[in-house]
Specification:
homodimer, about 200 residues, mainly alpha, Tetracycline Repressor, domain 2, 2 domains, DNA-binding
Chain lengths: ~200, ~200
Amino acid sequence: MSSKSQNTRNQILQAAWKLLEADRGKGVRIADIAKQAGVSRQAVYLHFTKRADLLIETTHFIDHHKDLEGRLRPSRNAATGIERLALFVDAWCHYIVEIYPVAKALLAMSATDSDAAAAWDNRMKAMKHGCEAVINDLKRDKNLSSQMSAKESVDLFWTLLSVRNWEHLTLDCGWIQSKYVAHIKQLSRQLLIAKI
Amino acid sequence: MSSKSQNTRNQILQAAWKLLEADRGKGVRIADIAKQAGVSRQAVYLHFTKRADLLIETTHFIDHHKDLEGRLRPSRNAATGIERLALFVDAWCHYIVEIYPVAKALLAMSATDSDAAAAWDNRMKAMKHGCEAVINDLKRDKNLSSQMSAKESVDLFWTLLSVRNWEHLTLDCGWIQSKYVAHIKQLSRQLLIAKI
DNA sequence: CGTCAACTTTACACCGTGTAAAGTATTCAA
DNA sequence: TTGAATACTTTACACGGTGTAAAGTTGACG
């Protein structure tokens, strides 16, 4: 845990992040990451127990680096449910773009590695609580649509904001980020907020 | 191409289908499929060039077995766009349940195998044409919502019906199939059809 | 009887992950 | 100044799954 050790660890995380972002098709191997970090392949295993572990730690590295907490703060401090909805969508959609490369690799691993699956699941459950908070505030303000139950609203909102939907709309449909955000915001309003 | 050869081929496809449906976590290997089909592992390679090829052929096998074409026919013959929308959603949502196990394996392979990726892409593009046909009929009937362009409506409808959204709502949110279908139908109406 | 097709058997190369262990270089402390 | 701890390198290897190669077996059919 010396500062030198910490430094190497950070270089590995930085390398993983960089390579995953640049990833064209063929997956990123441990050996690639080690090379990029200027370190031997074995050194990676001195800092991370396995590939899944490295990817999970990379997500935390990115969270910290991009100040995820700070980004979410405005939505938590919103005065109304409607405001909170908009601010939450903004923060989350912006975050997806940054986490996506690592998320993709982590999701791919989830099929074979249960730790990877559990780690991603936790993140998505935490994000779901954010969705719940939005719905609760809308309900408090009597602004929640009566079309669905609160629970269904949360599920739907959560699904709408999924990484897979971002992937589909931006990568498969070719929507640029601003168009994606605008539509998601408009849709969530239309589906969750009571008319009049 | 003798009938005996065809028979073996079908047994392999059947075995692949069965094992993928039963798959609990750990992936299905070629050796497993061969064993289930009562055939040597090498025999699989006499009928399919590689794993991706086998999975792709399995999707076609299922299509044929479940009469996908027949299932889609009612939607094609619908008198109005609104009818077509409902019938298309019904057929497709029903189909997802059946194709999902193979789709999951194929999507997992898509990360490493470009043939798998291309094959799934083709299927999804074909399905998108079905979405387009629905939107076109709604437009023809002056029933298409003016909130979005026709192109955007297609993209949105296509995304709404994605396998990933089915996965998220049923497996992650725990919605039963009937609830999933009812909500998707209601949502597509709300988003695509002009009010009044 | 022979031959052709379909399949089996055995063996092996390849890739990427993860483990093991011996060696090296730097730091720090008694 | 010695020597022990820390952080890393180097080399080697086991494992699991895919795909290839080639010789051997079986049965059908002219």
